[in-house]
Design goal:
The complex is a heterodimer. By secondary structure, chain A is mainly α. Chain A is built from two helices and no strands. The longest helix of chain A has 22 residues. The radius of gyration of chain A is 18 Å and the shape is elongated. Classes of the chains: A mainly alpha, B alpha/beta.
Amino acid sequence: MSRNYSKYSEQYYPPTPTAKTLFWRRFLPFQAWRFLVLNWRIIKIVVRGHS
Amino acid sequence: MADIIILGAGIAGHTAASYLHKYLGRQHSITVVTPNRYYHWIPSNIWVGVGQMSVDQVRFELKPLYDKWGILFVQAKAEDFYPEGDASRERGFVRVRYTAGEQQGETADLEYDFLINATGPKLNFEATPGLVPGRGNLASVCSYTHAAEAWELLQTKLERMAAGERQTFVIGTGHPMATCQGAAFEYILNVSFEIRRRGLDKMADMIWLTNEYELGDFGMGGAFIKKGGYISNTKLFTESYFVERNISWIKRAGVKLVTPSEIHYETLDGEMHTQAYDFAMLIPGFSGHGFKAYDKQGADITDRLFAANGFMKVDADYSDKPYEEWRIDDWPQTYQNQAYPEIFAPGISFAPPHPISKPMKSKNGTPIFASPPRTGMPSGVMGKVTAQNVAEWVKAGKPVLRHRASMGKMGAACIVSAGFGMTQGTAATMTVSPIVPDWEKYPEWGRNINDTVGEPGLAGHWMKWFMHYMFLYKAKGRPLWWLIPE
């Protein structure tokens, strides 16, 4: 990610993911778990959204 | 027997038709009027636009389904509304013009007891001179035909890059008040993914051009999100996504003119700029369809049904209020027109009371900010509550309107695809609740911070892929379709 940065400059830079973060984003067992969590979260939002 | 007419068969219209069939069966007459013979799952256009899905994977023919359900399918487009009838007719009717078949070009007057206007937006490309999808290096993903053309154009650019020719891609909004930033955001991420997948990223300059004040506004004023042990925001989230992919951005930009090789835009500071491009996909402004309405004597009453932007007036507070006085109660709950209570307008067809993002004007007086989004999940929910209210009204013989779905109370999930593939794909799953910030109920963050999150990862791609098939299953009316939430 270093290509996005200018050395010795005082600019603002957004955060960039570390290698560990990128690993977790692709690690199948963890993502399978997140898939279930995200599904549950969305169902809750939909059910609450209208009466 | 009640006559119910639904104009439009997009997410709101088709959802309303499906539930009306479920609640009322064949005891009442349900008619769907739509100029297109297909139902179209619009969120997957992104994948058509990068060659990962075919047009036939995102659409299906409506008539066979409606024939099975006993719904009359009329392939036509609405033109004029006569909510009081006319000199010879007591009931309201809508004048439509057939778009296919032997009657193509002819008009017909369809009388109704209840009218659901779910005609969605007009893609107002004409509002930006030169913004013509399919012309030169300009693409669009707003319809499946546009998306298929975008993929054809993109392939020529990939070939040029493979041959050593550097290309500039500009993707974003093509009008100072455009909405639907999410679709453009998905498209630039998917184009970037496809370029990197081919090892061509060093030959591409990727630029996000947007009317948002800050990245991550998405027409809903941005959002605070809970992420990684912090309360962060969608600005950081979006910028991080772009930096990770080496995408640069131009914000606070209202596109004024597009030529075959240049985009001319004004920024909030009043300066005019030019950006050259080899491939551009810019979302146009949305407007209503320019419908006209007449009373029983034939006098023009368009302003009683429609706001100045052409969208239909509903149970919203349209009084002119400053930004600081906007409240969630301004937003409609039943999508019922207040002048003619038998008319409803769920989905993008309803006129929002005001934007969600803070309105901004350039020094030259050009409004440059994102209009409020109403696509996808909110449209489906509005279509369902409209069907519930109409069905109960029909059964009870009087209005009950028990069912409500305000954007100030409902949440929404947006799965932002950033690359296709069951092991290599990725997407950002974003949920907000409510869509319109409620600073009275949630004074700290404007929304329920436990339900407002953003999470990138492979699971997001699975979600989007799963939703594609799940919502098409639901739309096709397959067994137990109604158990699937909107």
